[in-house]
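#lab-general

N.A. 3:47 PM
ok so I finally got the sequence cleaned up, no stray characters, all 449 residues accounted for. can someone with queue access submit it? mine expired

B.Y. 3:52 PM
send it over

N.A. 3:53 PM
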Amino acid sequence: MADFEYDLFVIGAGSGGVRASRIAASHGARVAVAEEFRVGGTCVIRGCVPKKLLVYASSFAHELGDAAGFGWTIEGAKFDWAALRDFVASDVDRLERAYTNTLDSNKVEHFHERATIAGPNTVRLASGREISARHILVAVGAWPVVPQFPGSEHCITSNEVFHLPELPRRVVVQGAGYIAMEFAGVFNALASQVTVVNRSDQILRGYDESLRDRLLRITMARGIDYRFNSPIERVEKQADGCLHVYTKGHPDPLTADIVLVATGRRPKTDGLGLETAGIALGANGEIPVNEFNATSCPSIWAVGDVTDRVQLTPVAIREGHALADNLFAGTSRTVDYSLIPSAVFSQPPLAGVGLTEAQAREQFREIKVFTSDFRPMKNMFAQHAERGFYKLVVDAATDQVLGVHMIGPEAPEILQAVAIAVKAGLTKEQFDQTIALHPSMAEELVLMR
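B.Y. 4:20 PM
back already:
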């Protein structure tokens, strides 16, 4: 391997790139990574982690409102957006240092500049330096998509939402996927007026219909407005700084302080130089790879969101780890993409694993559906009498649980453990044989008959 400066050069220091770098180095490989922005990637810097902190912070609005029913009197409570924003930024700084320390402790060299591909075994840094590597891994992630319409330059994406100078009083969110619904919930809880506009007539496409319907009803009751089949046509900035948002089918504009566009993410491959290695991109700008994360060029690999398979941080980590083991430990590992649990940190949150009811009816001759529609004990004294809803989808022929879907307090925390049972192929009878943990919301999973 002495013919190359590095055994592995990684472009992108997000979750997948950092994991691949660390594992490769632990196998004795000479590893370097280049990152043009900040070490940690989307999840740590401008995604999952800071967003979850905003969700936690905003949920206190409901907690404080419900505290009186439990005997608490809270006087003078007030919210400070700047304090929250700066705390979140400080935690992002902490995590970036931790990720950087991980690279340093594993003797991974890192370059804080953009890197592009200049050939099958060559990387070119923004400074002009060219570096040779036996293997090149592309792990640059994805980037928010902003549809083009007049005034789109006045809109923001999830990248910028963490840096707002003040809490907006009026928010328009375009899109109804998980990012859109999570931020809509955050701003709604913080007392902003929120309107969600969407090009279709449904939210959270791909999740079980019962959960989607329940979340829609709850969020409408909490004050979120919706305009379905009504994407943004144009945005006009007014003299006082506010925005007039015109949507399809509505002559009167919405007035907003910010317009958050959350209509999906696209692999960040523009200008990466992949053509110099003979790699053609897919229809969405993704890098096509096989089950071993290999591209059409034998020395170049790709993991994570840039492949546009499953855009989830834990998936990128699994892919990066498997690739490093395959390249430098002689293994032949692949990643199993079946039965991946997922969650939406809306308010309330929802989570699911396996087949939805609709998917199961398409794939199996006969299924059984078990549901529990209940009011969580925590909500007994709440201002809003919101109910939880759990669903088990079961193959009638084998009794195997095909899917579990939940909405209610702490649903994602409960679902992670349940996903193990679904992954293991357990049956409804085995769920039933498990004694309930009482009193808890999770006990509903073993009480459905």
